[in-house]
């Protein structure tokens, strides 16, 4: 038998794929912080990425395939999990035996994140194209598109909510991935759990700070 | 005079189900003069006496040792398997942990792999099947060797003992949102993987036990940690991580049947 034929193997694959995305969202957030520096830095950064074809296509293939595996196995595992208890309880564990809500609702925030990713790509990657020229090089003016979008309060509200859900997903996901990979040790696990939460908060606050900066500087 | 023996009134909502295929329903019952020294099972005994006197059938529930070591008692009490107290089985849960006038909902352990037999009694044969698939070690015939010939470090012995404390009650499955048997299976896998006596079957054991577990209708572990919190023997989540490691390694190393011993 191969790993993929067992639920535990599928869970490992889905977890590692989630881990790839967890690394990506951090990098994406950190790079986009250039919006605080200015239009030129932001556009040149984006231009450097899209003109580096091996990097661009490599990343796109990696992200698309890991997302497909994460979502498909995530849904398959969740369906099996739901079918393992046909008759629901009148009451569920509470008090000292209560677990975190995030860990029990991964499929729900995950699904919202999936729709968000699609909408996000439509808005930016496949959004309006205008161009600027720096040092004689013509490139896409992503900065003006981002500023335009982030000046719509309704959009920003939805954006903030989605990123908080991503943070919530990560607040369980990151440390859970270590457990899935078999890495649990009384000496290190408390630290891993704490760092997983810090990671989630940093990613979320980093992303949220960008539209808030745009809104605050445009009045 | 001070009250030495406090009694209370408890409002119970108890699950009744005639047979595995019966829909089941809750009945309400108020128990009066409940001594705070009673265990939860003794409360159930008293309730049953009252039901019998009224001409009703007694509520069926599992129990045996009543001292927290056999793993037979079960029940989900106010949403928690074995009740609100950590590291406690239902038989060791005392009524002094509740207050006069409390409302308590009592349900069976619910999981597809643990069908209800009657009322609060569930069939936990699925656990036996997991054990049978790998819970053994090879022992040479002949006279027993000196036990001191097998050195086991103190830390290893302690770790193995920690997981060997599993009484197989099934609270982990009952508590888990996914009805997963990962904690139980991992305790059994860990127990023998940690000790020298378990090495001969180490890889085949984890493969067999995990595959059996997955075939019985349990859900998968999603690392919520509910099992660890509900375990009356406090088996740690660490053992699930150990089972994961053991399983992945054994899975990638496993050889196709025909290749073994051949060229
Ligand atoms: C940026 C996007 C995402 C990131 C960074 C991410 C990250 C993660 C991580 C690290 C885990 C923990 C894996 C483990 O426990 O080993 C996880 C679990 C999970 N994710 Fe995602 N995820 C993302 C998107 C999604 C999407 C789009 C879905 C949609 C269905 C989803 C559904 C789930 C589910 C259901 C689990 C729990 C599965 C289980 O424990 O059985 N995730 N995610
Ligand atoms: S009856 Fe034996 S553990 Fe509760």
Structure description:
- Chain A is mostly helical and 219 residues long.
- In chain A, 72% of the residues lie in helices and 4% in strands.
- The radius of gyration of chain A is 20 Å and the shape is globular.
- Chain B is built from 8 helices and 7 strands; from the N terminus they run ββαβββββααααααα.
- Chain B has 2 domains: 112 residues, Beta-grasp domain (Ubiquitin-like (UB roll)); 137 residues, Fumarate Reductase Iron-sulfur Protein, Chain B, domain 2, CATH 1.10.1060.
- In chain B, 33% of the residues lie in helices and 13% in strands.
- Chain B has 263 residues and is of the alpha+beta class.
- The N and C termini of chain B lie far apart (88 Å).
- In chain B, helix 2 packs parallel to helix 5, helix 3 packs antiparallel against helix 5 and helix 5 crosses helix 8.
- The site of FE2/S2 (inorganic) cluster (FES) has 13 residues of chain B, from loops.
- Protoporphyrin IX containing FE sits at the interface of chains A and B.
Q: Count of DSSP E strands of chain B?
A: 7
Question: Could you say which overall geometry of chain B the principal axes of the C-alpha atoms support?
Answer: elongated
Bulk shape of chain A: globular
Tell me the helix content of chain B. Answer: 25-40%
Assembly of the depicted chains: heterodimer
Give the number of domains of chain A. 1
CATH level 1 class label of chain A: Mainly Alpha
The percent of residues in helical segments of chain A reads over 70%
Q: Residue-averaged pLDDT of chain A, rounded?
A: 97
Please compute the radius of gyration of chain B using only Cα atoms.
22 Å
Can you write the helix and strand succession of chain B as a string?
EEHEEEEEHHHHHHH
Kindly name the structural category of chain B: alpha+beta
CATH architecture name of chain A: Up-down Bundle
Task: Report the uncertain regions of chain A.
Answer: none
Strands of the biggest beta sheet of chain B: in what spatial order?
2-1-5-3-4
